[in-house]
Amino acid sequence: MINLQEETQKLLKSKSGSPFLFVGSGFSRRYIGIEDWRGLLTRFCDDILEFDYYSATANGNLPKAATLLAKDFHEIWWKEAKYENSRKKYKDSTTSISDALKNEICEYIGSVDTTGNSAKNIQAELSILKEINVDGIITTNWDFLLEEVFPEYRVFIGQEELLFSNPQAIAEIYKIHGCASRPSSLVLTEEDYEDFEGKNPYLAAKLITLFIEHPIFFIGYSVTDPHIQTIIFSIAQCLTEEKLEKFSENLIFVRRANGEKESMQKLNFSTAGRNIIATVLVTDDFSKIYSAINENKRKIPARILRYCKEQMYELVNSEEPEKKLSVIDIDELDTSDEVEFLVGVGVAQAHSEEQDKLVVQTEKALAESGYQGVNLSDIYTDFTKAKSVFDAEKLLKLAFPVFRRSNTTFIPVFRYLHEVGITNAHELDKSTYTSAKIICKKMAKKKYALSSYKSQYDNYWSSKSTSEIIREADPQKVAIFVTHQDPKDVELDALKEFLSVHKPDDFGDPYSSYYRKLCSFYDRLAYGFDLKA
């Protein structure tokens, strides 16, 4: 019997690039129970004709059936009382016949729980999926599951955003059929598909490098899906025979076995003289595929590589890049305000040795002062208390030098600066609390809110108060959505209570880091000040 995990690992070892995922509706059905396209459209036929009528009238063409359905749904959406709230929300942006149906589809999708169904095998697969090393994801899905699984990846919505932005092909999600956060972006009707397919050559040109340089795992699609084949053949038409062979080798379809034996098969399909032989992995246990992908360990996280690549791109395209380049000693990095992007070569060993010396010196000082056991977890537990268990001055002088050398950026520091009488940037600048200054400078350059969740916040949470978000959202999502609020709208008492009840260890990665951001966000609002002197 074939060992599918081992065979997939062998397959990936023969590839030079890290994988991309190409995710379809079957993926969302498997993990969060969203209906397929036909089932989704059927949900909105209660007040009009049966979906079978629209499907039959369209000769089984689903985009055309959606067009017919949208026309009838448009009439009731503007009249029925049950859509009153939606009309208030979307009235200004509802400008075409299909918009009403798109609005309600997005409302429904936004209400779906993206944490996955509770079946053990599904949760086990999701747990592995969240750890896998993929450079990016292409999807035709509209829901938010992928943002849940890969929360630090940047999201591009629709063909337009992908074609006319600056994607880096790493740590990114391309939602080529739109997203429920933006109803007008959905590729739903016959007209939408005609527009999409009209731009296929441009999309193919954008994706061609990905398909040549990376293995592409298709998950949640039938291998005969006409829309996927259209994209594949659009790319194939641009390739020489030599490149076409390499392209074919990178196409890997994951198909449910439905009780059959696990297998690795070859699938041959062709059009217009272009012959493609793809690989098909057949299994009911997708964790074997995800585990094989996860064997492709990367020393640097994809999101960090994306940031570096993006910053280097911006540097090269700058009008005066030489003004942003500098050669400085490692010890001067924290005090340099001029350098926007740093590439270090050959300094890792020296820096590591220097850092070890500093840690030893600081730990000795902590031991002598009785602060030896203080760590960052203690700070997150302490900073919301009415009375701190620490002497703020000793903490700032003896513990924060260790904290600033850690990988953690968002650290509650303003509470302790406030206790030693520092209440503005000028006082901080004149103080001797060097490490606190550096931590503040680091945080000043970062954003508390995750940009990949902004659209979701704008559509579903922006009208709610802090208390309502805390009450209605899953605890791990509170840190994501509250940080999008305008600071003047944040209910500090409610947020303080939430932070007092929950700790970073209550959440698995990456949510523990979001909780720490939320702590820092509260610390800045409750005790902080403008860092510009």
Question: Main β-sheet: number of strands, strand sense, barrel status?
Answer: 8 strands, mixed
Class by alpha and beta content: alpha/beta
Placed side by side, the strands forming the largest sheet appear as 3-4-2-1-5-6-8-7
Unreliable stretches (pLDDT < 50, length at least 5) are 326-341
Strand content: 5-15%
Distance between the termini: 70 Å
Average residue-wise pLDDT: 84
Count of DSSP-assigned helices: 27
Number of domains: 3
Q: Indicate the radius of gyration in whole angstroms.
A: 26 Å
State the helical fraction: 40-55%
Number of strands: 8
Shape: globular
Organism: Marivita lacus
Protein name: SIR2-like domain-containing protein
InterPro entries: UCP014677
